[in-house]
Structure prediction request, 175 residues.
Amino acid sequence: MKPVSPLLLAVVGIALAIAGWSAAVLIVRYGMATPVLPATALVTMGVIVALTLVLGIRVLRWRNGKKKKMLNPILAAWTLVLAQACAYTGAMLLGWHAGIFLDQLRFWSIRSGLDVTWLALGMAGGGLVMIVVGLVVERFCKIPPEDGETDASKGLPGHGRGKAKGEGEYAYRGD
Prediction:
């Protein structure tokens, strides 16, 4: 499995920011409610972030040798997939709600109730937290390089043993 590309996360976020802004402009023009998630979604986002962190810390503790018991490879794979899904979902939520927030700034001085504006900003912040946690936990799932091992490209030509088998791979590998 390939690591999450921050560039791809940025592209997803920007594309959904444009979509969110466009949707907010059109919906407000026709007198409909602004398309922002309810405040209870922040609780759901918090549960997802907490679960991702707990599972990621379990993988990190095993990777750093603080656990004697073998890590279940299926659990490690699920943790990696959850971390990547958390990062992509966070990028989508951040982009969509940032676009809505930018649209709501037009009404900042006109409107007395700014609940939708603050809600969109809170959802965008929650999306940012999801991105950060997803990327951090994804890094927890990587197997660190072994001591004494060097990459052949960093030394003199013909010296060094190259990468160890499994080095730089994800922790769910069974080798």
User: Anything to note?
Assistant: DSSP finds four helices and no strands in the chain.
